[in-house]
Amino acid sequence: MKKLMLGAAAGAILVVAAAPALAHHSAAMFDMEKPITLSGVVKDFQYTNPHSWLVVMVPGADGKEVEWSFEAEGPSTLLRAGIKKSTLPAGEKVTMHTFPMKDGRPAGLWIDLTKSDGTVISPRPAPPAAAAAPGK
User: Fold this and answer.
1) What's the gap between Cα 109 and its chain centre?
2) Residue 98 is part of which domain span?
């Protein structure tokens, strides 16, 4: 009985300890109802865990550049989507589609982007194509 109680206590501790990790992955800070489009020049691509950040200099309403940061998945997920650190070098012109921060800070969740050559890049890999049914 003592071992069972100890096991239950250990399980409860693990559940409580996992709660901050789940909260970490919330997208509550982004306004998922109002996607916006911004154009600018890549300043930096922080290809890091647990999330990567693409930093883009975007002209503001007053003509001054504003530094925007776009959150994406970590390197392993980006690599599965075909995105390497070298894919977005500093100086690359891009048009970003993003869900902006609710509080108005110049940051957002990276939906996709279009490079100056027309290439569209999404930070999430496409789902695998459904296998063709036999006989079709």
Assistant:
1) 6
2) 36-121
User: CB-hemisphere CA count at 13 Å for 1?
Assistant: 0
In 3-state terms, what secondary structure has residue 50?
coil
* pTM of structure: 0.75
Res 18: pLDDT: 40
Q: Residue 100 pairs with which residues in a beta bridge?
A: 108
CATH number at residue 61: 2.40.50.1010
Cα 136 to Cα 133: distance, rounded to the nearest angstrom: 6
Residue 90 lies in a domain: yes
Provide the domain count of the chain. Answer: 1
For the segment 76-123, what is each residue's pLDDT rounded down to a tens digit? Answer: 999 999 999 999 999 999 999 999 999 999 999 999 999 999 999 999
pLDDT for 27 equals 78
Which residue shows structure tokens 């309403």?
61
